[in-house]
Amino acid sequence: MDKLKYLLNNYMVYKNRDEEIFYEIKDNCHNYKEFLEDYLKYKLISRPDFLKLEKMPGTNHFSMGIQCFTSVLDYVIFFKLLYFLDNLEKGNQFLFSQLKDSINLNWLDGKNRLSLIRVLKFALDIPIIKELEKIEGNIEEREMLLENLGNSRYIIPSSYSHEKSEEIDLKTKVYRDLVMNNVIYSDCEKEYEYCKKYKDEIEDTLNKHLNWGIQIHKNMVLSVVNDTSGLFKSFPGKSDDDKISLQFNKLIRDKILNGEFIPKADDTLILNHYELDQLIEELRNKNEKKWTKLSRDKKNENLKKDILKILEFFSFIKNEDDKIKIYPLCGKVVGEYGEEEE
After folding, report:
1. Rounded distance between C-alpha atoms, residue 142 and residue 214, angstroms
2. CB half-sphere exposure, 203, CA atoms < 13 A
3. Is residue 98 a contact partner of residue 146, using CB atoms and an 8 Å limit?
4. CATH 1.10.10 spans which residues of the chain?
5. Which long-range contacts (CB under 8 A, 24 or more apart) does 114-119 make?
6. Which residues are 46's β-sheet partners?
7. How many CB atoms within 10 Å of residue 115?
8. What order do you get walking across the sheet with 129-134 strand by strand?
9. pLDDT digit of tens for each residue in the chain (342 aa)?
10. 53 pairs with which residues across the strands?
11. 3-state SS, one letter per residue, for 69-127
12. Which contiguous run of DSSP H or E holds residue 8?
C-alpha cells in the first residue's frame, strides 16, 4: 500500500537510490496491476535500473505543472534539454557549455540564466543527468561535466501524444481525479453523479489499495486520506503560508456565516481582485502579530499570490481570469491560532 503511494508520488523509482523500495515494488507489482491498469489505466514501465509509472490526469489541473518551474521559458528549456539528451547514448558525457550552446538563447539575459538554473537543478534532482565534475564558481558561469543517465525519454508519458481528456472513459476519469486531485465538484456533473451511484464500490477500491475512503457532500466528493505519510504533498503542511491559508479560509467562512458574502446555488463564491485585496488586508490586521517575521514583512500582493497558489494547488479555488472562484471545500478546512499561540 505504501509502495503504491510511493509510485504515485514520484517521477521514477531508482535502484541506486532506493534499492529496497525498488525491489519491493518490482517483486509485488502484480498486487497493484488491477488498480493501476483497470481503474486508472496507468502503465508501469520496468527497467533494470528504474521503475516509472506513467500518470495522466483525469481533469487538467493547476497542480499538474512542475512546481519548481515559474515561467513558460522553464518548460521550453526543459524540452530542449530532453531533445539534447535524446541524441546522446546512455552514459555519454557532455559539458554544461555544450548544453547552453544547443539551447541557443541569450545567456546575458538574467531571466534566461535563472530559467536554465531551475531546469538544471530539476534535471539533477529527478535525476536524468548526473554531475561528474565541476569548476568552483557561480553556477551561472562555471563549467560542469555532466552525464546522460539514459532515462530522459521516459519523462513524457508515451500516451501523452494521443490521449485526450474527452476520450477517457468516465470510470477512469473519476478514479484519476479522486487519486490525483482528491476532490470532484458537482460542476463536473457526470463524474459527481457517478460517485453518488457507485459510492460503495469506489470506497471499497480506494480502501483496499490506498487505505482511503470518500465523503459525498451536497456539492463535492472528497477522497478521505487516512494516512498522509506516503504522499508527496498534503495540506495543511507545517509552513507559515499553509497556516495563513487556513486563516484565509476561516475568514471567508465567517463572512458567509454572517451574511457578508452570499454564495451561489452550488455553494461557490466569486470574488474579484479588489475584494481579495480587502480580505488580505483584513486577514493581516486580525492575525499579523502572531505571524513569523518573514510573513509579516511580505507585501500584501505577495501574500495574496502565495495564498492563492497554495489554495489553487489543492483545489480550494480556481483562478478565472480577473476573478477567483471559491469552492465550498474552503469552508471545511479552516484554522486559527489557539490561546497557547498568542
Report:
1. 51
2. 12
3. no
4. 64-154, 240-341
5. 115/71, 115/73, 115/74, 115/77, 116/77, 116/140, 118/68, 118/69, 118/70, 118/74, 119/69, 119/74, 119/77, 119/78, 119/81
6. 51
7. 23
8. 93-95, 144-148, 129-134
9. 678 888 888 888 999 888 999 999 999 888 888 999 999 999 999 999 999 998 888 877 666 778 889 899 999 999 999 999 999 999 999 999 999 999 989 988 999 999 999 999 999 998 999 998 765 556 556 788 999 999 998 887 765 545 555 557 999 999 999 998 889 999 899 999 999 999 999 999 999 999 999 999 989 999 988 766 555 567 888 889 999 999 999 999 999 999 999 999 889 999 999 999 999 999 999 999 999 999 999 999 999 999 999 999 888 999 887 899 999 999 888 988 765 554
10. 44
11. CCCHHHHHHHHHHHHHHHCCCCCCEEEHHHHHHHHCCCCCCHHHHHHHHHHHHHHHHCC
12. helix 2-8
Of the candidates 66, 6, 12, 114, the one whose C-alpha atom is nearest the C-alpha of residue 313 is 66
Beta bridge partners of 133: 145
End-to-end Cα separation, the chain, in angstroms: 40
Fold of 64-154: Arc Repressor Mutant, subunit A (1.10.10)
CA 246 from chain centre, in angstroms, equals: 19
CA distances from 265 to 186, 194, 262, 317 (A): 11, 21, 9, 17
The CATH-assigned architecture of domain 240-341 is: Orthogonal Bundle (1.10)
The one-letter amino acid at 310: I
The one-character DSSP state at 180 is I
Residue whose cell numbers read 465538484: 185
